[in-house]
Design brief:
Blueprint: H1 8-12, E1 20-22, H2 26-35, E2 39-41, H3 47-58, E3 62-64, E4 67-69, E5 72-74, H4 78-88, H5 94-114, H6 119-133
Parallel strand pairs: 1-2, 2-3
Antiparallel strand pairs: 4-5
Helix pairs in contact: 2-5
Length: 158
């Protein structure tokens, strides 16, 4: 079935997902990290290249599916893609187990940050409190806005 849109984060969080082929856009990279899914990166331009480097070299939770020839990147052919996917999905390989383990660790860091008491949660809560405590007026009824309720952040607790 082909659908025009799906909830990529929900798909990536499903336990049957063994890996993710990604161009490494910021949202896709963030969602893969949050879900704890190892990534075959396929960056094309701009921030995708930096995000791919972060996944492969810094977080060590993926492989890059391009090979360099001098200053140019050359796309790999179908046989090479088949081979890299086969190796990537081989859970008997220590390198693959390590990559998946590392993806799980990165996921834990991301989830703790957005959970109650985490750094992202606290920063968003502080920002919203500052916003609500400002002299801003509610344009609908010209009243001062009230204090922010942390229950507004419940959507962040996945």
């Amino acid at each position: 079935m082909v659908v025009p849109w799906c909830d990529q984060l929900r798909v990536l969080c499903h336990p049957s997902v063994g890996g993710f082929w990604s161009h490494c856009g910021l949202n896709s990279t963030s969602e893969a990290a949050f879900a704890g899914v190892a990534v075959l990166t396929f960056p094309i331009f701009w921030d995708q290249v930096t995000n791919s480097k972060m996944v492969v070299e810094d977080w060590k939770m993926g492989w890059k599916v391009k090979r360099g020839l001098g200053d140019e990147e050359v796309l790999v052919g179908r046989e090479e893609i088949k081979e890299v996917v086969r190796r990537f999905m081989d859970e008997e390989r220590e390198e693959v187990r390590g990559m998946r383990r590392r993806a799980g660790e990165v996921s834990g860091v991301r989830r703790r940050a957005v959970g109650k008491g985490g750094s992202s949660y606290e920063h968003i809560e502080a920002f919203l409190n500052d916003l609500c405590q400002s002299n801003a007026r509610d344009p609908d009824n010209n009243r001062a806005r009230g204090k922010f309720s942390s229950s507004m952040l419940q959507y962040m607790n996945m």
